[in-house]
Amino acid sequence: LLEALNCDVTIVGLEASGQFAHPPEPIESNLQSIAQLVRQGAYDIGFCQDPDADRLAVIDRRGVYIGEEYTAVLCMLN
After folding, report:
1. Cα–Cα distance between 37 and 1 in angstroms, integer?
2. Which helix (H) or strand (E) is 11 found in, with range?
3. Which 3 state secondary structure label does DSSP give 18?
4. Kind of pairing, strands 45-49 and 65-66?
5. CB within 10 Å: which end of the chain, N or C, has fewer?
6. How far apart are CA 64 and CA 38, in angstroms?
């Protein structure tokens, strides 16, 4: 979807090997390396899903974790 919207995308963990660089639950303590990557890489946003894609966490451009419990609320804001 992001590529279809002409976004520049960097995918981490694309290889579906079953081996994860961190525990797969998208909680703040498990996403510190991703938060650092977003912060240092001058990205606008980071999206992190769990393996079955039913939860989504967001990392803002400053590397701040926005947990899965807020993603539905963010979708409702204009």
Report:
1. 21
2. none
3. coil
4. unpaired
5. C
6. 9
Token code pair at residue 34: 């991703």
Model pTM above 0.85: no
Q: Hey, is 59 helix, strand or coil?
A: strand
Q: How many helices (H) and strands (E) does the chain have?
A: 2, 3
> 11-38: per-residue pLDDT in tens?
887 777 777 777 888 889 999 999 999 9
Beta bridge pairs of residue 56: 49
In the DSSP assignment, the letter for residue 26 is -
Both tokens of residue 2? 């992001």
- Regarding beta strands 56-60 and 45-49, do their DSSP bridges make them parallel or antiparallel, or are they unpaired? antiparallel
